Amino acid sequence: MTPTVKTLVNAEPEGRSAFLAARRTSTAVELTMTVLTVAVAVLIAFLVILATGKDASGALGALLTGPLDRTPRIGRWLADATTLSLLGLSVAIPFRARQISLGAEGQVYAGALAGALVAIHVPLPPVAAVLVPLGAAALAGAALGAVPGVMKARLGANEIVATLMLNAVVVRVFDYLLTDHLRSPASAAIQSDPVRPGSALPLLSDFFGVPLDQANIGLFGMLAVAAAVWFLLARTPLGYRIRMTGSNPEFALYGGIDVPRTIEWSFVIGGALAGLAGAHLALGVYGGLQPDMAGGLAFEGIVVALLARNNPVGVVAAALLYSYLRVGGDVMEQQTDVGSEAVTIIQAVIVLLVTARALPELVKRHLARKEAGR
Amino acid sequence: MNSVLDVVLSTGFLAAILRVSTPYVLAALGGLLAERAGVPNIALEGSMLTAACAGALVAGYSGSVWAGAACGIAAGALLTLLLGVLHLHLGADAIIAGIGLNLLASGATAYTVYALLGDKGGTSRLHSGALPSVRLPLIEDIPGLGPVLSGQNLMTWVALAAAPAVAWLLYRARFGFHLRAVGEFPEAARSVGIHVHRVQFLALALSGALAGAAGVFLSMGAVSFFVTGMTAGRGYIALAAVFLGALRPWGVFLAALGFGAAEALSVQLGNLDIPSQLVSAIPYVFTLLALAFFARRRLVKESV
Hints:
The complex is a heterodimer of chains A (374) and B (304). Chain A folds into 2 domains: 30-49 and 56-62 and 336-365, no CATH class; 79-315, no CATH class. Chain A is 78% helix and 0% strand. Chain A has 16 helices and no strands. The longest helix of chain A has 41 residues, at 11-51. Chain B is built from 14 helices and 2 strands. In chain B, strands 1-2 form a two-stranded antiparallel sheet. Chain B is mainly α. Chain B has helices at 2-9, 11-36, 44-62, 65-89, 94-117, 137-140, 145-149, 154-171, 174-184, 186-191, 196-222, 234-244, 249-269, 276-303, and strands at 133-134, 152-153. Chain B has one domain (2-303): ABC transporter involved in vitamin B12 uptake, BtuC, CATH 1.10.3470. Classes of the chains: A mainly alpha (374), B mainly alpha (304). At the A-B interface, helix 6, helix 7, helix 13 and helix 15 of A face helix 5, helix 12 and helix 14 of B.
């Protein structure tokens, strides 16, 4: 089907509707693929649990229905998904510029630290008491994102190593500051003083009158951030530059795009979002600083971004799915003798299936063979 | 300050550096082989963890530390072969597949230990034993060096031997020549009849086996049981050592020793009034600076 002059001339109206139709189909195909991938991963977990001689259907029942059983669990799910979405969005932006930034972990701790320091020590009027710590957290995350960004864009340093090293440094500095300087004398455990009441993110329980654990208005903030990231990537010049840099840096350069500057911005904006995720943990979930407070969330944010193919709306959906499995895993462990690690296996299988593009590839090969045989 | 110097200059501390560096050296040399073959191996962490778990479990159930060590090393190699299948055959991104495999390793090891022993923490109730420490009569008598080397665990000796072995393999052996050719320019290597994928698979297997040996040291050398998540990011640090060592065997070896020395120092300084977290952060700061410096130097060279 080589384009003739006629089709080229007529391309305007027909082409657009055909393009939109094709995009709808490809979205539908991708959605089906994602659901299939998750189903296959759950099936594999089912077989693994069965192989260890445990009650697999009971365990998976608890895993899949548990999070909706009680309202506090729903709250935990939403709070977890909020942090995870912010982290997923934070890496999706550099990923879009084809920068493999693994720095979210350090940025989360920097954000939590900056946000909590302001929220604990600075008395502020209402509203500002919440917004100023959030701004501080975003700034801290952005500053930390700028370091590997500049190193990669201006010096050509490997961003994977740079971000991993920065993580190691920041986590240790955080640990040192928390144990040696910020530790609350009032508490036996290692943790900071609680944030001022006015600075804590208001809990959703207070609005809806049902116990929702730590879920807070950060949820709506996250949705706004996701919309903003979508707008940034799809509708702004910077977003265009980021996407061009990611899909073909040489072409972007010839097209007059300042590729190094674009790479730097992708790191800085990503860092700011990871900083906000840290603030959500410090001001919303924990109400202070705790050792190891981000757990493995930063790396799971990478998984979420990957699962969503760096699409902002998809990131939120993937984070909701992912957190659902996390909370379900805890329920499963409480109610059955199957460890919550089974969920990690499910998550890992999802990652491997998605990145390998194994399913479509195998299906395609199978179909091709059928056709050839006919 | 005197007490710090006393600590640093004691033979006990030098021996501790070797001990602490062992997993870094082994895993980093493994990472080097994969990297030079053109496949970044982020799954070092997962290989170590899988090997540490498999080693302790097999040793505990079979009663033989040797069977445990062999199975551990094989398990480490198996995980990187999986990376090879995903990346080379199924078109997966090596970095993301590596992260996925690390996730898989952390889930599968914890799940297996809990399912078999009912203990979330690890295999401490299994009494799996450790690999023997080695005393060589001649080396023991060398003044200065003797007390440092003597009585080190078998795997520490393996790590010390691995550096020259990898250097020989890369620069003197035919396979190493092929490996470097494949890593630098696969098309050219293919055009002269080198089996690119076969070389890469072999490099990955060796890489995983070395990372596996590092994991075996953790659960059957440093201590004699597996602890959930006991690698604690060492695989990622080893990866950094690969780049800090400028992708050369002896450079990588020294970088890994540097990370080990800083960790050993931070443990020692825990007794004194110096914050151990800050000391243990030093090698990472140093790596960042070195990364920027070397990248800049290359940039300057290229622009000339």
